[in-house]
Write a structure and sequence with these properties.
The chain has about 375 residues and is mostly beta strands. It has a domain of about 45 residues. Helix content is about 10%, strand content about 45%. The longest helix is centred in the N-terminal third of the chain and has 8 residues. It starts with 14 loop residues before the first helix and ends in a 9-residue tail after the last strand. The relative contact order is 0.14.
Length: about 375
């Protein structure tokens, strides 16, 4: 059913009905309708409406593919996926010009439809739905090449925050020290933090997306069972946590497993729960992915094991999920694939050019959240 609301009759409609209609519309339409009248503008920009629209069932999950060219880096190229796909049929991709992000090399996660972008010299927040782009102040800590970042939302103070962790080598003591800083969007500034985690014999990894759950951000870490981390030693998976409101770091154990590769574990989200992906091989040397979920009591459960029918030398890696039973895979020199774990069918998602260094897929919802100063 299509409801046509004009200037002539809009004031005769109950406010609840007007709100119920507007909340189902895409961001692009709502931005235009802000000009209809002051009441509509006030409604569309209100925090309650913005939050209701973000989580409304009519606001579908969208997928953004972004690729990064090899050195010299120029930009991130972005592509929009359709809302639905058919098995074994390569979907048509949209490449809107306004989604180009010149000068930014990495997408460091997204929250509420807002993406955190960074390069060697700069950072920014970006809302692809509203086309707002906000450069952030310069890094407070000097980049060391292996920096870890996080982007999350502090629901208690209604503030978006960017976290930076730098691993600094102490050549005198032959040890590593951790430094940390946090950026607050509401204050538009960086602050130094106390990083009380011993990072010696540990290696931290950036997450595949913004792994912020219930006001806590998480990074995956591998701790060697020997003093010196080496690929021949087995590793224990653990998590480094950051309370978004109290701004305190901590550690929690991962699943009770040992892994052989430093890059075996990756953190992401699965149905809004914290998810650990453990890549390995089964008894027949076929690539496999164990999917672990953490509950509110910080306990882990393995919910799925995916045997990937792709030769091991392609080194397939899970990059996310499409719904409940589809896994998004990236593997060397091949297209991005969606693998249906029930039907065991593949769908080519994206044909990567040979010059492309890296491809990522992000699922998000369009958002009216403003990042303007």
């Amino acid at each position: 059913m299509i409801v046509k609301v004009t200037m002539k009759n809009s004031y005769n409609l109950p406010d609840d009905l007007v709100r119920g209609i507007l909340v189902t519309l895409p961001v692009k339409s709502l931005l235009r309708f802000k000009c209809v009248c002051r009441n509509w503008c006030a409604l569309i920009t209100s925090s309650s409406f913005v939050n209701e629209h973000l989580h409304h069932k009519e606001n579908p999950t969208r997928f953004l593919i972004y690729t990064r060219d090899p050195y010299p880096y120029i930009s991130i190229n972005t592509f929009m996926l359709p809302e639905k796909i058919s098995s074994s049929v390569t979907p048509m991709l949209k490449k809107p010009s306004y989604l180009q992000i010149p000068g930014m090399l990495k997408i460091g996660g997204h929250v509420d439809g807002i993406f955190f972008l960074r390069s060697e010299n700069s950072m920014a927040l970006w809302n692809p739905a509203t086309r707002e782009f906000r450069p952030l102040p310069p890094y407070l800590l000097k980049l060391c090449g292996g920096d870890k970042f996080g982007f999350g939302f502090d629901s208690l103070s209604c503030d978006y925050k960017v976290m930076q962790i730098v691993e600094e080598h102490n050549y005198v003591k032959e040890s590593w020290n951790g430094l940390a800083a946090v950026y607050s969007l509401s204050n538009d500034c960086w602050r130094n933090l106390t990083f009380n985690i011993d990072i010696n014999s540990k290696i931290l990894f950036n997450s595949l997306c913004s792994t912020c759950v219930n006001g806590v951000y998480y990074w995956c870490a591998a701790k060697a069972t020997e003093v010196i981390p080496h690929d021949t030693y087995e590793k224990v998976i653990l998590l480094v946590s950051f309370d978004m409101h109290n701004e305190v770091f901590g550690e929690i154990p991962g699943p009770d497993i040992l892994v052989k590769s430093l890059h075996a574990g990756s953190l992401t989200l699965y149905n809004e729960s914290l998810c650990l992906l453990v890549h390995g091989y089964d008894d027949q040397e076929r690539p496999s992915i164990d999917i672990w979920l953490m509950n509110d009591e910080k306990l882990w459960t393995k919910v799925m094991n995916v045997i990937v029918p792709i030769p091991a030398y392609y080194d397939p890696r899970c990059r996310g999920f499409w719904g409940h039973d589809k896994v998004i895979l990236e593997h060397k020199g091949q297209p991005i694939l969606i693998y249906d774990t029930k039907s065991h069918e593949f769908t080519n998602l994206f044909h990567r050019e040979e010059k492309t260094k890296r491809t990522r897929v992000s699922s998000y919802r369009e958002s009216l959240v403003s990042i303007k100063k």
